[in-house]
Design brief:
alpha+beta; 5 helices; Structural Genomics Hypothetical 15.5 Kd Protein In mrcA-pckA Intergenic Region, Chain A; single chain; elongated; 142 residues; five-stranded antiparallel β-sheet; two-stranded antiparallel sheet
Length: 142
């Protein structure tokens, strides 16, 4: 079933790390796929035992290749194809970025609430330009 070698872009797609082979090839081109710190080209062949790092910000995932395949397999067969060897601190990074996305949200950002909208409408609707009784002497000609 498995070849001894496979193109990295095909393997990333077949192992369901990327949804399409085009996206996998683009990730290689952008330098998001590497092995031992060296960026890989899409045409680079990989074999069983290689460890591939895939950077999907903010996390860098690491996968040990168990089978070099180029044909996509069902999700249930993925444990036979790869082993996830991503260090736990990468998942902590992911969790931190997920939490920080919600904590820092200021109230009222985005669409205004009903109360805010009404106060805005009240503020902008037919209010007189001057508040109070002001009289101006505009260079009256006598």
């Amino acid at each position: 079933m498995a070849n001894s070698e496979a193109r990295i872009d095909k393997w990333l797609w077949a192992a369901r790390i990327f949804k399409t082979r085009t996206i996998a090839a683009a990730a290689c081109k952008k330098g998001q796929v590497s092995m031992k710190g060296t960026p890989l080209k899409a045409s680079r062949t990989v074999k069983a035992g290689d460890i591939v790092e895939v950077r999907k910000p903010p996390v860098t995932y690491s996968f040990r290749i168990l089978q070099a395949i180029e044909k996509r397999v069902g999700a249930k067969l993925i444990p036979e194809i790869l082993e996830n060897v991503t260090p736990p601190e990468q998942y902590e990074l992911l969790e931190m970025s997920r939490i920080s996305g919600f904590v820092g949200r200021a109230k009222g950002t985005g669409r205004p609430t009903k109360k805010e909208r009404r106060s805005l409408e009240e503020f902008t609707s037919d209010t007189p330009v001057f508040f109070g009784d002001f009289e101006f002497d505009m260079d009256e000609e006598d």
